[in-house]
TrEMBL record:
<protein>
    <submittedName>
        <fullName>Tetratricopeptide repeat protein</fullName>
    </submittedName>
</protein>
<dbReference type="InterPro" id="IPR011990">
    <property type="entry name" value="TPR-like_helical_dom_sf"/>
</dbReference>
<dbReference type="Pfam" id="PF13174">
    <property type="entry name" value="TPR_6"/>
</dbReference>
<keyword id="KW-0802">TPR repeat</keyword>
<dbReference type="Pfam" id="PF07719">
    <property type="entry name" value="TPR_2"/>
</dbReference>
<feature type="domain" description="Cyclic nucleotide-binding">
    <location>
        <begin position="7"/>
        <end position="107"/>
    </location>
</feature>
<dbReference type="InterPro" id="IPR019734">
    <property type="entry name" value="TPR_rpt"/>
</dbReference>
<keyword id="KW-0677">Repeat</keyword>
<feature type="repeat" description="TPR">
    <location>
        <begin position="128"/>
        <end position="161"/>
    </location>
</feature>
<dbReference type="Pfam" id="PF00027">
    <property type="entry name" value="cNMP_binding"/>
</dbReference>
<dbReference type="InterPro" id="IPR000595">
    <property type="entry name" value="cNMP-bd_dom"/>
</dbReference>
<dbReference type="InterPro" id="IPR014710">
    <property type="entry name" value="RmlC-like_jellyroll"/>
</dbReference>
<dbReference type="InterPro" id="IPR018490">
    <property type="entry name" value="cNMP-bd_dom_sf"/>
</dbReference>
<dbReference type="InterPro" id="IPR013105">
    <property type="entry name" value="TPR_2"/>
</dbReference>
């Protein structure tokens, strides 16, 4: 086994794209690498890789496509491991394994909590109710095939369950792709009486218990919770509410991790984006301008400047907008999608 190799990247280079085949694991030795990914709420996030930190680990070990894009800012030097080399490298380094497990565990808890929020539930209940709830969320969102499948699984594993009649009614409608009936009562949690629910219930029960405990320890007023809620509100078109909550996050001074600091920084940008979506262009311009003053080297600086140009254009200041679009095209990386969009705007304005 030859061991890791050293690879040097120029500024603006892409280490890997989202959905690329994952074969290598990387360690940042020198320079700056930014990971760009979309969270469960559909919001694009950016995260700096720390010096000496591994990245690309989960997808390479799990052998699934990359979940983020890794881009070099400035220039960078990285160590590149093949998976067998990485496994051999960490095999006798227990502290590294424990550190990575803690990170993965934390990420899993965050995803679980975000899924609970999307399903409209504060904490996990029993598996039968959870399965019905998932089925109905799919149905209400027009995903008839997934809804029908989930209803069928409920009937298969809980033939004598509390929601059997409801599941039979809804599975027929979902198969016919009939919109969710407005006359049906809201799904209400009812404890299942017996232990006759079968093997699946026992499997899910063991998964639900730790999730319940971990869920109860999550502070709804934490930076992460408030940021996720604000993102959900923005994606739901509730812009006034999202602006208020992003403002609350942007003013937080109690961040203790780099991730929390990034959420505080990002919130000022998303205040502007929410205002822009609400067609409040003066408000958007004010928020985007404040971001530039407060975070002149922020991770979202280029995207912020591009949206400032969009808001300026929408407010009727065409010449000023052209100058801003021109500045965007000159910011590294020069060949990313934001630069291309800005160039298209400049061509269209001629």
């Amino acid at each position: 086994m030859s061991g890791p190799i050293v690879r040097n990247y120029k500024g603006g280079s892409i280490v890997y794209f989202e959905k690329d085949k994952a074969e290598d694991i990387f360690v940042l030795q020198k320079g700056r690498v930014v990971l760009t990914y979309t969270n469960i709420n559909g919001v694009e996030l950016k995260e700096d890789v720390k010096l000496g930190e591994f990245f690309g680990v989960k997808s390479a070990i799990g052998r699934y496509p990359r979940e983020e894009t890794a881009q070099v800012i400035g220039a960078a030097t990285v160590l590149v491991f093949k998976v067998p080399e990485f496994e051999k490298f960490v095999s006798d380094k227990t502290h590294l394994i424990i550190k990575m497990l803690k990170v993965f565990s934390s990420q899993l808890r965050q995803v679980h909590r975000q899924v609970r929020e999307i399903l409209g539930q504060g904490e996990a209940k029993n598996p039968a109710f959870e399965l019905m709830n998932v089925a109905e969320v799919y149905y209400k969102n027009g995903n008839f095939e997934h809804a029908a499948y989930a209803f069928e699984k409920y009937l298969q594993h809980y033939p004598d369950g509390m929601y059997t009649d409801r599941a039979r009614q809804l599975v027929d409608l979902a198969r016919k792709k009939t919109p969710f009936p407005l006359t049906i009562q809201e799904l209400v949690y009812k404890p299942e009486p017996g232990a006759q629910a079968g093997k699946l219930q026992e499997m899910l029960k063991t998964m639900a218990v730790p999730a319940q405990n971990s869920g109860s320890s999550i502070d709804p007023n934490s930076i992460l919770s408030q940021y996720d809620k604000a993102s959900t509100l923005m994606n739901a078109g509730k812009y006034a509410e999202s602006i208020d909550l992003f403002k609350t996050v942007s003013e937080r001074t109690d961040s203790v991790t780099q991730e929390e600091e990034q959420f505080v920084e990002n919130s000022l940008f998303y205040m502007g984006k929410s205002s822009f979506k609400a067609k409040d262009y003066p408000g958007a311009i004010a928020h985007f301008s404040n971001f530039i003053k407060k975070y002149p080297k922020g991770l979202l600086l280029k995207e912020n400047l591009y949206h400032l140009a969009l808001a300026t254009e929408a407010s009727g200041e065409k010449e000023k907008a052209k100058q801003l679009f021109q500045k965007v095209t000159q910011m590294p990386p020069l060949d990313d999608s934001i630069s291309e969009d800005a160039k298209s705007k400049l061509k269209g304005g001629k």
